[in-house]
Predict the 3D structure of the following.
Amino acid sequence: MWCIILLVFGLIGMQPKHPIHIATTEIVYNPDFNNLEITHKVFLDDLEKMLTKNFKGIYNVGQPKEHPDTDANIKQYFAQKFDLKVNTASARCDYMGKEVQNDAVYLYFEVENVLKVNQIFLKNTIFFDLFSDQSNLNHLKVGNSKRTVKCVAQKSEYDINF
């Protein structure tokens, strides 16, 4: 009997932590500070898998023994996989930091000196190199206008007008 119980719990433990591969991004124009505030919400295990695959090492994100290069590697990866243009001009997304909440990580970025937003070009291929079924939902808010676009392997770029 104990063998069956151990086998069942062993099989449960082998299941993936989450069956869907999705990340969300929120981009909000803040006219008071003339900036875009960007928040990526990703699964902690996906982030650690990406860091290990692309940069080697054990990262322990949000733990006391977190890898010393965690933030630099997150910044580098997201610079390669997330691209924005505002009103056709390239936008530099500055990494501001991260916050771990249970199995999610919030990654904060900012684009400074944005006086007005008429159009945003967005390309989001975060974790496409890890999962063939990765989906990235992007929520954009400029003033009272809200848009949502879904980036998948077949379509990862959008021009969004406001």
About this structure: Residues 99 and 106 are 5 Å apart (CA to CA). The longest helix spans residues 2-13. The beta strands are 22-30, 35-43, 82-86, 89-90, 94-101, 104-111, 119-124, 135-142, 145-151, 157-161. The first strand starts at residue 22 and ends at 30.
